[in-house]
Specification:
The chain is an alpha+beta fold and 317 residues long. The strands form 7 sheets. The chain has a 5-stranded antiparallel sheet, with helices on one face. It has a 4-stranded mixed sheet with strand order 1-2-5-3, with helices on one face. Strands 17-20-19-18 form a 4-stranded antiparallel sheet. The longest helix has 19 residues. The radius of gyration is 20 Å and the shape is globular. The two termini are 22 Å apart.
């Protein structure tokens, strides 16, 4: 019996029930991941408020139990055995967004990026159409400063509200350390992102609709469509080639012959080789081995250390 099941038997389950904190036991995490990879978590807790989050953290500390925060499950490789920690996932109260004044939006961290930013765009506000092509939750998009097609989340973000070390903070953008696929939250991994505020300008609806379609078509034509993946595996290196062009990770991966490479159920996508897809029954350990193989081959040939964009959730392998 692991420490979590022991704690449940000794009173953790009763205490969560008495505080009316929603939780589930023995949850397979694969369906909560865009990769559709992941083993069974002994306990998934879904708090609905700051008070409930603080209650959960107090109880877990009392029982000496580690935890990890799971959002939309994109850009994430979940362990085949996520059984030595509790999984915390924000509840339904964080799946809401509202316009608090003209062009200013408050968006919960558990909002799904694709439908949320599509709805905001179709309300006649321009600039965030690219975010409608990025799967996942807003909280995760904040942590990695998600972006594509020349845009990033922090281009439009005014402030971030989060809970860290028992205190709720609201930081304006200029007070946050962020950059290309990076924020201070990615480095610390201890903050619960709660919500963001964004300011957007209105635009021509027909032009916005055309922009939405253009970006969706571009994504579908250049990336594995309707396949189980975690998005781009590696960040593009901040380097130029001999012709002065920015280097792309996919080109380096292709150059070392890894396009189409398969190990078990994990396949380096033929459509875009900076993607690894789950062909049906891939394990986290197989994806990990492919990632390691790509890193080694690229370094041996080019002397370039590729940096992962995908995060590991639990011990992988």
């Amino acid at each position: 019996m692991n420490v979590i099941n022991f704690a449940l038997e000794k009173g953790l389950e009763h205490e969560l029930e008495s505080k009316r904190v929603h939780f589930r036991k023995e949850v397979t995490l694969a369906p909560l991941s865009s990769f559709k990879i992941g083993g069974v978590s002994p306990l998934v807790i879904e708090p609905e408020s700051v008070e409930e989050i603080e209650t959960v953290l107090f109880l877990l500390n009392q029982y000496s139990i580690e935890y990890k925060i799971l959002g939309g499950g994109t850009n994430l490789l979940i362990s085949d055995h996520p059984d030595d920690f509790v999984t915390i996932r924000l509840g339904e109260n964080y799946k809401k967004f509202e316009m608090i004044e003209e062009g200013k939006f408050r968006i919960g961290a558990a909002c799904n990026t694709t439908p949320t930013f599509r709805k905001i765009s179709l309300m006649g506000y321009r600039g965030v159409e690219f975010l409608s092509t990025i799967p996942g939750w807003v909280g995760g998009a904040v942590i990695q400063n998600a972006g594509c097609y020349g845009g990033e989340l922090f281009d439009f973000t005014d402030s971030v509200k989060f809970l860290e070390q028992g205190k709720v903070y609201t930081l304006q953008k200029e007070k946050i350390d962020f950059g290309y696929r990076y924020t201070q939250f990615l480095k610390s991994k201890s903050a619960f992102i709660l919500e963001i505020e964004m300011s957007l300008k209105s635009g021509n609806l027909a032009e916005i609709e055309e922009s939405l379609k253009e970006k969706r078509d571009k994504r579908n034509s250049s990336q594995p469509e309707n396949k189980k993946s975690a998005g781009s595996v590696f960040k593009n290196p901040n380097l130029k080639d001999d012709k002065g062009n920015s280097m792309k990770s996919w080109a380096l991966i292709d150059a070392v012959g890894m396009r189409g490479f398969q190990l078990g159920g994990a396949l380096v996508a033929r459509e875009h080789c900076n993607f690894i897809v789950n062909t049906g029954d891939a394990k986290a350990r197989e994806v990990y081995k492919i990632i390691s193989e790509i890193k080694e081959k690229v370094f041996q040939r080019f002397g370039i250390e590729l940096e992962q964009e995908i995060e590991f959730f639990g011990k992988v392998p």
